[in-house]
Amino acid sequence: MSDEADIRCDVLIIGAGLAGGSLARQLSLEQPDLDVVVVDRVTEFPPGLDEASGEEFSNYANRVLRIGPYLRKHHHVSSGTRFFFDSRERDLPIDRMSEIGGLSPHPIPTYLIDRPAVEQALCEMNRRNGVRVLLGTTVLDCGPDESPAEAISLDAENGHRVRTSAGVITCRWLVDAAGEESPLTRMLDLVAEDDRNPIAAAWGRFEGCVSLDDLGGKAWRQRVPHWGRASSMAYFMYRGYWIWLFPISETTYSIGVVFDRRHVQPEFGSNEELLAFLREHRALGDILGPSPRPLSYGSRARFARFARQQVSEQRWFLTGNAGTVLDPMFATSSWLFTENNKLIAEFIKSDRTGRGHQLPGMVHHYGIRMRSRYEKLLNSPGHYLAKGSFDTWSAWLALRNRVYYNRIVPDAFEDHRILLHFARTHGTDCQCDDQVMGGKLSRLLKSADRLTEEFARLLDSRGMFYSCNDGMFLDSRSFDQDEVLMAKVHRRRDWALELPADERTYEIFCRTLVRRLVEISGAAWDEARFKAVFDPDWDGHQPLEELYRGTVGQQRLTQHQS
Length: 562
What we know:
alpha/beta; FAD/NAD(P)-binding domain; D-Amino Acid Oxidase, Chain A, domain 2; 562 residues; seven-stranded mixed β-sheet; single chain; 3 domains
């Protein structure tokens, strides 16, 4: 590589998509004296995998990036997340499908964004802020079968050097936000094969669809009177897979199928094959209408991806899909890159203000956080099977959302204050790794997965897996607007309050599962018996069958079985 630099800068970001573009804007606003360059091989951003943005990203967008007015003007403010459940034969019209969703919008607004449009807008905003955005610029000799080492030379002391079609760029801090094509992860061999999360997907955009608010009967439409359902992020849940419905405009939808290869393996190779599969579901066929026009198509055979290192004392970083990719449900991508971007900005700030002694501890603790997120979000073998049952999914979803508002959202809203405190004060020889990776939250989530899978097996054994998929409605405000959690979500985090909230969540979850089994058995609910047999310590691995039998009582259980 030539010793001469054609372009010098403080920060070089490879990738101008949502993750890279957001980081460039954050740096230009928070540290405006930084000279930031962004390169991307595209000149126009193509449609990709569409997903909702969660509260972490909406807070980041509003408060850190200051693009809330732009998003509210040009994109959908979400009217909430909705889950629909079908019959075994997949033949229910949408107004008979059981539904989980709010009767009114959530108090913390989120957005449904047309991703290519936001990425283009970020380029323009960044240029106005003095960021040099070089589209149509490739990292040279960095194709799928070529070695990125020919293009990238890492040198923390004298400056990293990247050979691009715009010339050799030298930078002090290098950020790779290039997605799965990340040159740094390939050059440093950071991503290993991991088949613990064998999720795949196919998706497309279709014009000429029917709005959700034009379907169903009058009573069904009036059940959600405020905003209707057309600006909702909708998920259609099936055994082994789910289908997303993401509104781009009134009659244009992004529709995708995400499936667990352990259970189902539909064949997709084109929009035509995707359409044919979607039309096997009555409700999706009604939404597509008689003549939808395909606008784009994409697929991914393998989702799970985790780079073993994403932040380095050598002043290079990964963000977005370059570092971690998981299941697209629950807006995990926007959550993960939002957090990474904040941590990268803090690293750069500490580095350039003479606090170099903090950097090893920051790298160590950032690594723990990134690995912990990935491990907690992996799908258990039975997780995708449980998605197809209203009974099973509603209980798991309620637990997941309560944990989310108890821990994840408050942590994001205060910009990871506790993590940064530990990162700056603990060094690298602390016990944080063991405490986080094997902590109470991790064990709670594993226990919930275990009980959910057992519940699904018990429903199957009784022939009741689909029994509540027709005609039921659950107002999600009962768990995602929980008064206890909403009262503290904007306050300074207090760990002393989080464990009791998780304990309450676990008890509600177990009671929901057992109460349904008691109802199926025909017995009467006995709260005193439940409280007497319930073990609140999820580390005790109490089986659901034991909890159910103890709640029903042996005598009544024998009478029912006879």
